[in-house]
Amino acid sequence: MNDHSETVLDYTYIRCDLRNATVTPMGRDLAAQLHPIADVDALRVQQRETSEMAEQLSVDDAPPVSTVADLHPSLATISIDGFYLDTSQLLDIATCLESVQRLRRYAQEAAHQRLLVTRRLNRLPDFGILLREIRSAIDEQGHVRDHASAALMQARQALRGVRERIQRRLQELLSVYREVVQDAIITIRNDRFVIPLKADFPRALRGIVHGESSSGATVYVEPEAIVPLNNQLLHEQAEEERAIREVLRDLTARVAVQRVGLVQALQIMGEVDLMVAKGRLSLRMQGVAPQFASERQLRLQAARHPLIADPVPIDISLGPEDRTLVITGPNTGGKTAVLKTVGLLVLMAQSGLHIPASADSVLPVFNDVFVDLGDEQSLQQNLSTFSAHLSNIGMMLQGVTLHSLVLLDELGAGTDPMEGGPLGVALLERFHQSGATTLVTTHHSTIKTYAVATAQVACAAVDFDPETLAPRYRLVYGLPGRSQAFDIAERLGVPRDIIERAQLETSLSQTRSEQLLAQLESHRQQLEMEQQRLDGEREDIDRLQSEAQTLLAQAKAEDRRVRESLQAEGQTLLKTVRQELDATLAHLRRQGGEPVVFPHEAWQQAEAAVTSFATISEPVAELEEAPFEIGDVVRMRGLNVVGRVAGTSGANGMIQVEAGGKRFTVSEADLDRASVADVVAEPSPKRRPRRDRRRRVAEEPLASELRLLGATVDEALPAVEQYLERALGRGMSRVRIIHGIGTGRLRDAITELLRRHPQVRRFQAGDAGGGSTVVELEG
Predict the structure, then answer these.
(1) What angle do CA 264, 265, 269 make, to 5 degrees?
(2) What distance in Å separates the CA atoms of residue 364 and residue 355, rounded to the nearest whole number?
C-alpha cells in the first residue's frame, strides 16, 4: 500500500490509536510500523487472533502483558569488552523476565483453549534461573545485597568495623571538648568524618580543617587521632566498590549468555502486546472480523467510519457482477464519506484489525489502494486543484491492476463542465477496463449517462429527504441521483430571482433529464413506502401465525394431559372394580349354587373404552403434491374464487388463473386444488355450502352498506368478502363500504381486494373525502 492513500484515508490516526493501546515499547514500535498486507491466508490468521483477543478481553482473561522497559539498548552494549550493567538496568531486565514468566504460566493455563496466542507464548524461553540470580543479588531499591559475593560480604564487614571505631572515638572527643563544640553531632565533609567546633576556638583541637559553615560561626575539623581511621575507611569503601563491580560484571556475563533468548522474548512480547491492543481497539469501536471473499465482492453492511463521532451506518455493495460504482447526488449528502469509509475499512481489514460493520460484511483482498479525494491543490509544486487531481490520477493509471481498489472523488471537477465531463468518462473507462474495483463520485451528467449505459457499471445515489433536502446518509442503488444544486441554493438563502435566472440558463435537455430523475426518485420513494407497509403487514402476519402455533401447541399439550389423566384414573378405577368383582365372584362360588362365569367380553369393552382416552391422533404426513398444470381446477385463497389454470411460470412460482371471465396472476402458494363441480357458475348446496348457507337465510335483512370504521386490515378484509358474498346471494347490485380515511392503509387494501374480485363490475369513491367506496356487483 502507498503512503499517500494511508494519509488521505486517515489510516495514520487508526495506527496512532492502536499505538496508544499498547503497553510495551516493543508493541508501540510494531504498531507504528503496521501497514496493510495482501496475503489472504495471513490476514485470516490475524483476524482470528484479533477475534480471540477481543473475546478474552471481554471476559477479563487476556494475556498479562505488562509495562516493561526497552532492553534493546542495554542488550546492545553487553557485548562490549569491560562493560557491565548497572543495578537499574539489571532491575529493568528482572522486571521484564518476570513478565515473561507470567506469560509462560498463562500459556500453560490456557492450553486447553487452543488459542493462537499460546503458540507464540510457548516459544518464550524459561528465564527462571537468571531471574532468581538477579533478584537474589539486587534488592528492590537497586542496592547490591551483602551476600551477593563472599568478597562483598567481607568488605562490608570490615567497613562497618572501621565506621564503628570512628564513631566511638569521635563521641569521646565530643565529650572532652564539649566547651568548644558547636553541636554535639558527627558529620562528614569531603568523605571524611569531622566534628563541628566554634569558630572562636579553631585551634582548641589538633586536626585538619575541612571548611566552615555559611555563617562562619562553625568550622569542621577532622581530629588528628581520626585521620588514620578515615584513611582506612576510604580503603574499605574502595574494596566494597571493587566487590560490587565484580558482582555486576558477573550478572552482566550471565545476561549476555541469554542475549539471543532475551531478544526473541522481547519480539514475542511486542507481538502479543500488539494483538491485545487490536482486541482493545475492536471492543472500543464494536468491530467485527470481515469475511475475505474468494471472488471480487465488496459488501459492507452497517459500516461506520471509526473516526467520526456518532456515525450513521451505511450499506455499500459492489460485485461480483459489477466492478465499478458511480455515486451521485447532492452536496453534503455523504458521497465523500462513503469513499473514505470504504477505503479506511479496507486498510484496517488488511492490517488484521476488526472493522466497525456487521458480521456479514465481505471484502476482497487488494494489492493496492489508490485514492484521489478532496482538495489536492499543491502550492509547493505550483499546481491548481484540477492539475493536482490529474497529476495524482496519472500516477494511479501507471500502477493500477486487476487487484487494485480505486477511489475517485468528484471525477472531472475543477474545470469547464463541457470538458470535465467527457474527460471524466474517458478516465473512468480506462480504470473500468483495467479490471480494478472502482468507486467514483460525480455531478457530471455525462458520467451518469455512461454509468447507466455501460455493462458492469452500477449506479447509486445518496438518499435525501425530498421535503427538507436533508441527507439520509444511505445509498439507493439502480438510479443516478440529482445534484439538487438549485434546491440546495434556495434552502441556503440564495434569492429566488437568481435561482430562476440560473434555471433559464439550463439547457432544455438537461431540464428534462432532471425532471425525469425527479419523477423516478418520487416513484422509488413511493415504492419504498409501500414495501415498508407490506413488510409491516408481513411481520403482523408472522406474529399472529406464531401466536396461533403457540396456542395450538398449548391446546394439544392440554388435551394430551387430560387424556392421560383420564386414562390413569380409568385404569385405577378398573383395577379397583376388578378386585371387588373377583372377590364377589369368589364369594358366590364358595356359597355353591349355579356356576358363575366372569364376563370377559364386557370387561374387554370397558378396558378398550378407558384406553381410548389416551389415543391422540397422529398428524398424517403431507404428501408432496404434483405441480399445477394448465386446465387444473383451483381455488384462490382469501377471495374464495374457483377457476382454471391458464398458464404457469416455473421461474417465479406465479400461476395465471381464469375465473369469472377475468385472468388473475397469483402465487402458487395462494392456490388450493378444487373439484370440477366447483367451477359451475350457479352454485348448488353440494358445491358452495358457505354461500348457500347464507342463501338459506336470505330472508334476514342485509344492510346496503358495510361500516368498518376502527377495524384493522386483518379484521376488515374477511368482513368485506363475507359481505359481498351475502350481497350477491340476495341479488343486490350496488352496495357501499364505509372505511374512513385514516392513514389510507385500510382503503388501499379494500381497493386491491375489489380490483381482484371477479364479481365486482366496478367501484368508485363514495364521497369527496374518500371515506367510503361504492361497489357495483355483477348480475
Answers:
(1) 120
(2) 14
Residues 459 and 346: beta-carbon distance below 8 Å: no
710: alpha, beta or left? (left if phi > 0; alpha if psi -120 to 50): left
Amino acid at site 506: T
User: Which of these, 685, 298, 636, 286, lies nearest to 460 by C-alpha position?
Assistant: 298
Tell me the β-bridge partners of 437.
405
State the Cα–Cα distance between residues 88 and 341, nearest whole angstrom. 48
Q: Which residue from 123, 119, 102 is spatially nearest to 111, judged by alpha carbons?
A: 119
Rg for the chain, CA atoms, rounded: 47
> DSSP character for 653?
T
Q: Are 43 and 292 in contact (CB under 8 A)?
A: yes
Exposure letters 529-542 (e unless 16+ CB within 10 A, then b):
eeeebeeeeeeeee
Residues 6 or more apart whose CB falls under 8 angstroms from that of 192 comprise 210, 222, 230, 233, 234
Residue recorded with cell 479496507: 346
Backbone angles phi, psi at 55, to 5 degrees: -70, -40
What average pLDDT score do residues 14-24 get?
A: 95
Note the pLDDT tens digit of each residue in 400-423: 999 999 999 888 776 766 777 888
Q: What is the pLDDT of residues 542-597, one digit of tens each?
A: 788 778 888 888 888 887 788 777 777 777 877 777 777 777 767 776 776 555 55
Alpha helices in 440-491 (DSSP H): 445-453, 485-491
Residues contacting 253, CB < 8 A, separation 6+: none
